[in-house]
Amino acid sequence: MATSTQPPTAVLNSSTAVVHLEYDMNNPPALPGPASEWTRFVCLSDTHCRAFPVPPGDVLLHSGDLTNIGTLSEFRGAIGWLQTLPHKHKIIIAGNHDVTLHNHDGWYDANYQRWHRRGKENTASVRNLLRNAKNKGIVYLQEEQHEFQAKPYGKVWSVYGFPWSPFHRNWAFNYYRENADQIISTIPKTDILLTHAPPYEILDIGSRNERAGCKALAAQVEYLRPQLHVFGHIHEDHGAEIHEWTGSEDAGERSVFVNAANKPYGPKARTSGGGLVPFGTGVYSPVIVDLYDPVERT
């Protein structure tokens, strides 16, 4: 099992990771050390067609629900916005709302009328849009692994994208919990894990104050121990934790977990005055994760 550092403030610290949950968007926090030793990841999720200020960094990670119902028009807007952001590396996955991306097994063809009553969207055009976005530095992962180097002579990072989430009203990329072990076991060792849904008991408390995370994913994450695991889906529990794994041969082994959902929902979505927190701001700001990444010169 793991112990976690809960966020008593808007900043979490360890010797190899610094996480910023709230900050001045006009003056984002500095790196904790020289740029040659640290890599900045900016984490988003559940942006649902909205555009808002995002701090600069080396790598942008998005854990799905780029859209509301996955139309080509919505994807054009979402990808167009991401293209304007300054990050050299941008890595994205789908979520349950990105319905047109779930058609490899005929699911969209069988279910499209629930969302697209005027007719099916052109799923090939959606795929081509994402494929062409790679020319703009945006990499879409669907049960795939990707490697990149954030800076010359730095670490070669591996990232795996997994869009599936536990069954809820038969939205896209849903699996039944009784089948979770089979599908979750396909997730490989990786430095960075992007999933749409959270693991059980990690930033997964929903609107009914119940745990919505996946137990099979929690077990797999404990086995994989990625340096960074980013997800969303459960908007109510936006935040971050740094876990220090116990019983590890490598003392001090840690994972940073981030629920990066940006759409305000639930108790955190209200200000002290009762108003709605603006989209992607305050406690729903993009999460900044700085990871120790020293340059290795030969």
From TrEMBL:
CDD domains (alphabetical): MPP_239FB (cd07379)
Domain Calcineurin-like phosphoesterase stretches: 56-236
Highest taxon of the lineage: Eukaryota
Gene3D superfamilies assigned: 3.60.21.10
SUPFAM superfamilies: Metallo-dependent phosphatases
Gene Ontology MF, one: hydrolase activity
Protein name: Metallo-dependent phosphatase-like protein
Organism for this UniProt entry: Cristinia sonorae
